[in-house]
Amino acid sequence: MLTLMVQANDLEEGTIQRLDFDKIGGVGREGHQVLPVVLQEVESGEVLFVGYANEEALRMTLEIKSAVLYSTSRNEIWHKGATSGDTLSLVDVRVNCEQNSLLYRVRRDGRGACHTTGTDGSTRSGCYYRSLTTIGDLVFLE
Prior knowledge:
Layout: H1 8-13, H2 23-29, E1 35-41, E2 47-53, H3 55-64, E3 68-71, E4 76-79, E5 88-95, E6 102-108, E7 130-134, E8 137-140
Parallel strand pairs: 1-6
Antiparallel strand pairs: 1-2, 3-4, 5-6, 7-8
């Protein structure tokens, strides 16, 4: 059986749908003790991206008033934007009814929130920059 490696660029810049329906299963199999976190820009209501937080990341977020998450792919804490300058200042943290997910309401301190860049080379404002129109195909919103 031939297995094709999907490059990050194909996932992030491609127009072919490759949804990871096993993401949550993989997080569980790896034993990560995390909650999903939706990051939302407080002024516009735009959902920037979804990440994960463990107890340490949540504690750090509350202490420094800036979005800190847990990278399930790198197995480490990361302060969003610490290297790019695109940090996210914390307005508040909300907890859902079942206490199994969080909402970080934030303000962008830089130009964007996504680690990818648009065609002009600037950081994208958020990670939801493509639309799914039919099964299999993605269309850029920019």
